Amino acid sequence: VTAAPHGVLAVTHGVALVGLDARPVRIECAVGAGLPGLRLTGLPDAAIREAGDRVRTAFQRQRLAWPQERVVVNLAPADLPKAGTGFDLPLAIAVLAATRQVPVEALRGTWAVGELGLDGGVRAVPGLLPAAVGARDAGAHRLLVAPRAAPEAALAAGLEVLPVADLADVVALLRGDRPVDAAAPAAATTERSVDDLRDVRGQLIARRAIELAAAGGHHLLLAGPPGCGKSMLARRLHGLLPTLRPEEALEVAAVHSLAGERAPDDPLSLTPPFREPHHSVSAAGLIGGGSGVPRPGELALAHRGVLLLDELLETPRFVLDALRQPLERGEVRLTRSRASVRYPSAVLLVAATNPCPCGHLGSPTRSCRCRPDRIERYRARLSGPLLDRIDLQVEVRPVTREELAGPPDGEDTATVAGRVEAARAAAAERWQGPSLNRDVPPTVLRRTCRARAVRSLARAADALGLSARAFDRSLRVARTAADLSGHPDVDVEHVEEALAYRLADPVPSA
Amino acid sequence: VSADHQLKQAVAAVAAEGTDPDALSAVLGWLVRPQRSAEGLRRRCLEDPHDAPPPERLRRAAGRVDATLGGALLPVVRAWHDRDVRVAVLGDPGYPRRLAAGWPDLEAPPLLAWRGRPVDDRPTVAIVGARRATGYGTGVAAWLAEEVARAGVRVVSGGALGIDAAAHRAAVEEPGGTAVVLGCGHAVDYPRPHATRGRLFDQVVEAGGTIASELLPWQLPRPGSVRARNRIVAALADVVVVVEGGEHSGALLTASAAADRGVPVLAVPGDVRAPGSAASHKLLAEGAGPCTSPGDVLDVLPMSVATVPADATAVATAGATGDRTSHGPSAGTAEVAAPIGPLPPVVHLALVRAWPRPLRVDELAAASGCPPAQLLAALTRARVAGVIAEGVDGVRLRRSPVAGRPATPDDGVDVAGPPDPAPTPGT
Description:
The structure holds two protein chains of two kinds. Chain A is of the alpha/beta class. Chain A is built from 20 helices and 18 strands. The C terminus of chain A is likely disordered. Chain B has a nine-stranded mixed beta sheet, sandwiched between helices. Chain B has a two-stranded antiparallel sheet with strand order 10-11. Chains A and B meet through helix 7, helix 18 and helix 20 of A and helix 7, helix 18, helix 19 and strand 10 of B.
């Protein structure tokens, strides 16, 4: 093997992830006169600067020639912050081409993402799926990745994903010595939890509420004493959500891939995610954060699925307030000094809370020991902007012993899920897209309401003292109730039902 | 018996026979032979309403048409016919039973001409008041009317501007529907904003309501005829609610006509300084019941819905007729008698049984078997109508089901028992 003559320039591509945004990075390598050594330019971070050492050692271990000249590698565009170890592989390929160990022409349309071990082995990096999608969209024809990560990367349809185990594989592939089969995309699975609605005893109102929540995507607040089955209901609600469409599953997998929450060889799950962070979660943990480029939080990880916040009122107010905008927009926007990123957060929020600090207010068997002013303050934390985004608010009572002993008395998940799917289909057809009633503006909603329904809502709002936001909330839920019963127009009965899903301030029964 | 009276009855009977003007003139001749007295006609109608003249007899009678009388009556018949007005004389099957109940002492009209559906025996509330009404008055009238009409109760009033119109409008699309009693004939466009084509009166007819009048088509509204109209409004109602009215309001006449018939009168309190509420306060001072919510109206209505038409009952028991009939034991309760009100019978019964203990909504759903969606809708209705009270420990009826009710919690099971054998309200 001889050193390449001066002036040979090799170009390949890698991918830099800014949040879920994949930006192409052009990797240029030139070998020329000078003291032997590797110089990296183009705003590389520490992990990339270390790449030089890893790549050089990998070359030696794989018995590939490292040029005894000066090697300059430029990562362009220089102003794009680049981080992580995914540039090892394209960097090595650029050096291989610049030193003519592989033909430069073989690099056209060939992108690579992967970390190199000192032994020359290729390893998977987090965020491969969004990286592969970004590479495809930027014009890559084929993508070289670690074998273990290949099924995940191959989910980006239209991209030839070639698994390479080590640098020797890379050389053989690029020289055309040995054909490599393109990886097949990861198989899709729809693993469902075994929690069935049929196991829920009693709880008729809450059952109806989760049906509405699943059908319209409405956020749900469950208030009830400890042990009354709030999180059990949330899990049943998760079971009612329709299976993800492939493109939705990809969105979900992309976030999970980026956060390192899924192994790269995991099958593609079509099950909506279910996230249940502890109530001590920090704002950064919930909505995402971190210095440099912010990472996705629980909200983004629950995208297209259910986010259960138990003991809602134990979570600090400012953490809850941080939820507001993401819930409204369906995406989290995070801005840090080095980057501004967006993560999708179209979640169905299920919030659970005790009715009072001790949890026994309104319980038939236990007496509440809270002072009235404490209850008032406790509830006051519930009110406010976040509560306005929660369309469905129901009280859950503990199941009685008779109900527990009795036979299963309700419908099973499959039956209710069938209605939910039909209602979602009706809504999608009406709104001309996969929109949920949760996201439709009130003015548009109102066009599908019978005049007497709106009149009745207006008068009820007067009589019951509803705010304008509660008015809109009821309109949204009424739309879903109509969809569930197969009515094209919202009628009085739907509005009336919707009005019942709010936590009224308890007035002493006089 | 005056000639006018006889004329009216004759025309009424004629119009009731059919709609073909030529055939009508034939019938006319048969009916108005001089020897036929009005009293005889009445007896025939009352005692044997099915003794209608057979067609061949009518054809023969056509030859004996009295030219003078026929000439005078034909335009009347045509005027009604052109407006799809049907007519019944006292004693006809189509003549409202509750209107006939007090005849002749209370001057029941000898004929009633109406557009739309005939006035049946369903529970009825009269909501009356001044034409010059305040926003408060029309608001309350609409609130009361819509809520009680939704519970299957008909709202009757005088079709005037102001309170009357607010009540009609609010009830027109609801299951209970509405009936207008005009103070003029059907061919007179009065009051013009309502009588104009496509406006309130047409809407009432279209929605299955009734526009009724005791007058011949071209009779103009006069103070006397409007007063006479008020007595019909009172006679058609199970309870009269006076919303707003001045010191000499016609609503007071309706109230006294109601009092004469033993129909309860309620009055809506207003601003004590407002002259527009003088009638209400006068009635309150004289012992009328205060009306502060639709629940007050529903409370004085008769307990049984045995006489409510099937469609109204279906609404009252929406749970039973929902798409998930197999879901609860409420199926088939449409035939069961129940209180008039926004609550389905099964729900009401559960609350009566629990009274005075409140029930949590979940318990109520389990106890009544009413599907949650319908139950929650009914509770909202009841909340707005003010018939239930809510607390941290659940809901209960706002008033004792014992006081002022034919049923008590002890024998209260009877509210869902078989229909009352004598279900004619207002008697």
